[in-house]
């Protein structure tokens, strides 16, 4: 019998794609976004989805989608935006915190559902900023709730490039189980240090080079942004693997606050983190334009069969916020090995 998983905050499906590839049966996805729902129904028509604020969804409602009302693994990545490292931190007072940014309560809702549904294993993904939110107290509270619910749980900051994703992307991964095993994270299989004896980091060029001469193909999510003439002239000054030389710009090209959208990728290195920002990904390694959504999806290791709904900006946010499926597949296989270990030790009853 296959192992069952549900995906809370499923987004574009990066997490559950990997788990499905590893052999899990995805019983349910939950999110609260009409465009995500359209993307889900187009690409995963056989997986049920609830499109609603998760704070209004009870564990009893979720159980109606589960055979024998049990689930082996709960996975999910609560929305990143509530944990931005930019700007003012939210209050430590729960009521004030909820008013300032209700998204911060979604992680606690995730923990509540885990307590009630009691999966054997749990996976939570979030941005690096959760480490320092409220001086570290927020994450400490989340971990306390998981431990109090009977889970051995730990967190780790992981770079997706260490797992073969052609992108430098740091994310916090929380793993836990209630079968009594010590928490182990999947071992990296790539490194930027030859002394580690692992495969070298993958470069982004191998993922996108065949798209270099392809014109706009809207149905393939491959549409180049129409940049202004001034921005194109700026792009021409950006060296491969470098950023805009702000101190050497002619007066007519100067402006304040150049960000990651004025950095050019290198053909010999992983990409910068795919964050759509102000409607633009980083600059293509050889062309004077930002990456298309399809190129960003390739770097995020989505299959070409995956089509993202919405306008270009909306597609980009779905791609940029996702967990790379290549990493999630390796994580899913690692958890399978942990399940097998628990079964061998007689710790895994299917209750």
Structure overview:
With 351 residues, this protein is α/β, with parallel strands linked by helices. The chain folds into two domains: 4-188 and 323-344, Vaccinia Virus protein VP39 (Rossmann fold); 205-320, Alpha-Beta Complex (DNA Methylase, Chain A, domain 2). The protein has eleven helices and nine strands. It has helices spanning 14-21, 34-43, 59-63, 94-100, 104-117, 137-148, 205-208, 229-235, 293-299, 312-320, 325-344, and strands at 4-8, 25-31, 49-51, 73-76, 121-127, 152-159, 170-177, 190-191, 199-200. The strands form two sheets. The protein has a seven-stranded mixed β-sheet, with helices on both faces. Strands 8-9 form a two-stranded parallel ribbon. Helix 1 links the parallel strand 1 (4-8) and strand 2 (25-31). Helix 1 (14-21) crosses helix 11 (325-344). It is globular, with a radius of gyration of 21 Å. Mean pLDDT is 90; it is low at 80-100.
